[in-house]
């Protein structure tokens, strides 16, 4: 199965060009997360998955141009590629989780076929001095990893990975220091505090670049540029290989717009060698 024939890619293409209500975006978000299963779910099961009412699912299908949910489900079943022999149904639960992440990475590779959004994001991040990087709860490690490496090439990176009443103060401080953009990592379950913080950041004049698990995530309406990277949901806790890799891609794009990035890396390597920082 090619990347463009993946269940997630098929659903993304189906939703594109439609103006969806917040409830409908929630349904779309849930469908993308369970893309392989959606053609076989009843409207009641999809409603339970998305946490909405069954009539909301019906109205969602009509908004997409179908007569009702059964017609939408028939469409998805008709375009679903046949599962190859020895496919995921023969894997144990751990293998299925790995295969799902591989599929997420394939979908990310397809999205990156158009590099313009990432390059635009790289320019925004490189130009922001300082650069605040936000990630709370499940996304805190993604924000920390990005900030750790970004600090080696960017002159002023400010990590925001703890919530509370001080976070708006820290955004205000960044704006006063000259920040023009904020990078956010947003993963499910989406904390209300992240949504509120992004709204505050935009109100303070920052351009918001967000890496989220779906283009229909709750943070979308508060983002100037949203870059989706799906998470795996097959284990007790979500896996986030694609968002992590997209963060590294953003680092690369940012370095391309920092003329002294290579010199800073060489300077760090020389200092690390002099200090015996790493074991060969």
Radius of gyration: 20 Å
What share of the residues lie within helices?
40-55%
The H-and-E topology, N to C, reads as HHHHHHHEHEHEHEEHH
Shape call: globular
Tally of separate helices: 12
Largest sheet: 5 strands, parallel
Give, in spatial order, the strands making up the sheet with the most strands. Answer: 2-1-3-4-5
Number of strands: 5
The N- to C-terminal Cα distance equals 42 Å
Runs in which pLDDT lies below 50 for 5 or more consecutive residues are: 82-86
Structure in words:
By secondary structure, this protein is α/β, with parallel strands linked by helices. The chain is built from twelve helices and five strands. It has helices at residues 7-15, 22-33, 43-50, 54-63, 69-79, 93-111, 116-127, 140-150, 167-176, 192-203, 241-256, 261-275; strands at residues 131-134, 157-160, 181-186, 207-212, 225-228. It is globular. The chain starts with 6 loop residues before the first helix and ends in a 5-residue tail after the last helix.
